[in-house]
Design a protein that fits this description.
Belongs to the LysR transcriptional regulatory family. The chain is of the alpha/beta class. The chain is built from eleven helices and twelve strands. Strand 1 and strand 2 form a beta hairpin.
């Protein structure tokens, strides 16, 4: 590591990005604006790279800046953890984040997010809860989760919650290979078999209901209401049930041929998937690291909006 790089360089850079302003970052670090600008210039000169672009509209990370930012955050986080560890020697003090993930995100994103995070911030410990939108938002509002990843819910469920969109996702109807409906697939026929249907408080229920109404299809009479990934996979693969679920939940099973997606147009069910936090809450190092990792994973999977 270049010995010219000091902690103050990393702190200034990270704080400017966090506050999206040289002035606000300087106030936070108790510096003058010329001083923090000079510190940033020193860091860019040492690295031989432009980290931030300045304009009247504000500041923006360059590609090199975005790459370096994750490592700068991780370095400062490691130092904070070490200082905390000295104060609480022998305890489990350190970086931790409580994440809620709806089934579609848990199945599609979280395995890859964890792999990426293990490289960027191996000291960070995640606690992951999976469940319905209503359940996870309740935990978030009560302070039992720090962040929730999932589909945007109905307005009444989003009170006190800030939502940042990451990508769009639609609903899929899936069956086992060899299912009788595959001979003549159609939305109007699904009521002939048992259906695993999204429950009342699930985020995808309104989208599915609008699709069914638009096509003149009544609620399936033989339905079980659930968004459980484990139950849906086991039931669909082992019976003639038709599963209506977010495409992300079953993306791997479809790719591997263990489930077949019915050729039904579900584009009208597309809805935003994003990151939810309590509105007005100050950002944390852990959440910033996690958000950057999620964004890299989405870009790598080709899901970005």
């Amino acid at each position: 590591m270049d010995r010219r790089i000091k902690i103050r360089h990393l702190q200034a850079f990270v704080e400017i990005v966090r506050r999206e302003s040289l002035k606000r970052a300087a106030e936070r670090l108790l510096l003058t604006q010329p001083a923090i600008s000079r510190t940033l210039s020193e860091l860019e000169e040492i690295l031989g790279a432009t980290l931030l672009e300045r304009s009247r509209a504000g500041i923006a990370l360059t590609a090199q800046g975005a790459f370096f930012h994750g490592f700068a955050l991780a370095s400062l986080s490691a130092l904070e953890r070490g200082l905390s560890g000295l104060q609480e020697f022998g305890s489990e003090a350190g970086l931790s984040l409580r994440v809620g993930a709806l089934p579609s995100v848990a199945a599609r994103l979280m395995p890859e997010v964890l792999d990426d995070l293990a490289n960027v911030a191996p000291e960070m410990r995640l606690m992951i809860a999976e469940g319905s939108h209503e359940h996870l938002i309740g935990l978030l509002n009560r302070g039992e989760l720090d962040v929730v990843l999932g589909r945007l819910g109905e307005p009444e469920t989003m009170r006190g919650v800030s939502f940042t969109q990451l990508y769009l996702e639609e609903v899929a109807l899936v069956v086992r290979p060899g299912h009788p409906i595959l001979a003549d697939p159609g939305l109007r026929r699904i009521g002939e078999w048992p259906v695993i249907y999204p429950p009342e408080k699930s985020a995808i229920r309104p989208y599915v209901r609008r699709l069914m109404i638009a096509e003149g299809v009544p609620l399936p009479p033989k339905r079980v209401e659930s968004v459980s990934g484990d139950f849906g996979r086991a039931r669909t693969q082992g019976s003639d049930s038709i599963w209506i679920i977010s495409a992300g939940v079953v993306a791997r099973e479809i790719a591997e041929g263990r489930l077949i997606r019915l050729p039904i147009d579900t584009r009208s069910t597309k809805g935003p998937v994003g990151m939810m936090v309590r509105a007005g809450e100050e950002d944390t190092t852990e959440r910033r690291l996690f958000a950057q990792t999620v964004e890299r994973t989405i870009a790598r999977l080709g899901l970005a909006v």
